[in-house]
Amino acid sequence: MNLILLGPPNAGKGTQAKKLFADFHIPQISTGDILRKAVADGTEMGKIAGPLMAAGQYVPDDVVIGIVKERLRQADVANGFVLDGFPRTPAQADALDKMLSGLGKHLDAVISLEVPHKTLVERGSGRRVCPADGSVYHVDQSPPKRAGFCDKCGTGLVQRPDDMPDVIEKRLQKYDAETSPLKDFYAKKGLLKSVDGVGSPDGIYEEIKAAAGKGRR
Ligand code: AMP
């Protein structure tokens, strides 16, 4: 099963991609996660990406296309993958089409998670992450047992620079202007399925499975 999870920042793409992996063993390909690791490791790619990410800007197409090209060639995606955060521009969507046809693969569905703007801002600005083990919390919806500290390892939680309210707004504007038009692109190919991204993560997951043709019958 080859899927794209499309949706604005904080729509829940990462959470849902992890659920799909747990059930179907199809790896999540998150360009955001790969870029964040490059920034943390201080690689050349990380040095280009870091300031752009912190400002809510997109990383250049050729950089992210290169990441996905390399990732799709790896053996663990033989039975499928979930793209999370890619493609984000028409040039990336075109490049993906070419990559997939070169590899003899095709997309089964493009799931668009629909979440109102206000909810996206609330989710993002309340998110706190553990810099040591990557655990994710939300100050209201899933707070740690001791405010400000990771339940698992006790490290002090931090706010990602791109979760600052003004940066969130910028990222949402960018999504509306540059990524949202991809919905039309995939609708014309008959691949787009819209799913309501508000509600319990498990309920949303059932909707996603149904949209991908893997729901309960
Ligand atoms: P994400 O975790 O998917 O929200 O990505 C975090 C940040 O990484 C984005 O705000 C962009 O700066 C950058 N990024 C991730 N994926 C892409 C992409 N496909 N194209 C351009 N920039 C990206």
Over the alpha carbons, how many angstroms does the gyration radius reach?
17 Å
Might you state the CATH topology name of the domain at 2-26 and 79-116 and 165-211? Rossmann fold
Helices, by number, come to 9
Q: N-to-C terminal Cα separation, in Å?
A: 18 Å
The CATH superfamily of the domain at 2-26 and 79-116 and 165-211 is: P-loop containing nucleotide triphosphate hydrolases
Summarize the structure.
With 217 residues, the chain is α/β, with parallel strands linked by helices.
Task: Please render the helix and strand layout as text.
Layout: E1 2-6, H1 13-24, E2 28-30, H2 31-41, H3 44-54, H4 61-72, E3 81-84, H5 90-103, E4 109-114, H6 117-125, E5 127-129, E6 136-138, H7 165-179, H8 182-188, E7 192-196, H9 201-211
Parallel strand pairs: 1-3, 1-4, 2-3, 4-7
Antiparallel strand pairs: 5-6
The chain binds adenosine monophosphate.
Could you walk me through the main structural features you see in this protein, from its secondary elements to its overall organization?
By secondary structure, this protein is α/β, with parallel strands linked by helices. The chain contains nine helices and seven strands; from the N terminus they run βαβαααβαβαββααβα. A five-stranded parallel beta sheet has the order 2-3-1-4-7, with helices on both faces. Helix 1 packs across helix 9. The longest helix is centred in the C-terminal third of the chain and has 15 residues. The protein starts with a strand and ends in a 6-residue tail after the last helix. The mean pLDDT is 94. The structure holds adenosine monophosphate.
